[in-house]
Amino acid sequence: MRNSFIILIRQIAAGLLLVIPMLACANDDPFESINREILEFNDSADMDILRPIAVAYEETVPIPARRALVNAYDNLTDINAAINAVFQGRPGKAVKSTGRVLINTTLGLLGTIDVASDMGIARYETDFGHTLARWGVPEGPYIVVPFLGPYTIRSGVGDITDSFMSANDYLVDDDVITWGSRGWRALETRANLLDAEDLISGDRYVFIRDAYLQSREALVNDGVVVDTFSDFEDEEWDEDF
Questions:
Q1: 151 has which bridge partners?
Q2: CA nearest neighbour of 8 among 182, 158, 153
Q3: Which residue from 18, 21, 34, 210 has the highest number of Cβ atoms inside 10 Å of its Cβ?
Q4: Best CA proximity match to 96, nearest among 84, 113, 106
Q5: How far apart are CA 157 and CA 142, in angstroms?
Q6: What is the pLDDT of residues 127-148, one digit of tens each?
Q7: What is the pTM of this model?
Q8: What mean pLDDT is reported for the chain?
Q9: Is the Cβ–Cβ distance between 217 and 226 less than 8 Å?
Q10: What is the pLDDT of residues 25-55, one digit of tens each?
Q11: How far apart are the C-alpha atoms of 203 and 189, rounded to whole Å?
Q12: Dihedral over Cα of 227, 232, 234, 237: its sign
């Protein structure tokens, strides 16, 4: 294995030490000015490069093939979910995520078919940013990263840590395959957003920021959504186990 567990923990600690001084501004948007400039740059790069590729991808790759690839990729992320569930002190969710991997890898033809969901074993949506939230680490300010898009400090550190824990890195000792799979997943995500483009209204920056922060709030609150776009009551998707 390329990265030992000790190196991983050191990376986490180093990342937290770098961002702790910034965590005090958790409830505002101190970088809005530069964030808007980066968003404008990202939008330009998206329109010139990523969106045309995503459109071509959606029009040429059959949906069954896309679904099989997504299922196989998500099967590996279930390994990360199991690890994060352990870090979060949620053994029940760790067992379920591990069970999903075993079932889908065997009965689901190496994860290409999501048999576990059909059996009623739902995927545990989580990441290391969620784990940090469970540990009491503040969210930190909202940031927009060139090419990568929106994050908070906490979710950004979590995303970096998850990349070190990625099953792809441990199961496939080939950087081309590893980064190729990540690039494909980004393309798949962009293709899924094509139909949602017309939903953005008003100030584009504010809309994207609020939507992202709302989605992160839902994740760390285990599915409890506070709808900031309307007067609907909170909706609870799942109960903790």
A1: 143
A2: 158
A3: 210
A4: 84
A5: 12
A6: 999 999 999 999 999 999 999 9
A7: 0.81
A8: 85
A9: yes
A10: 545 799 999 999 999 999 999 999 999 999 9
A11: 23
A12: negative
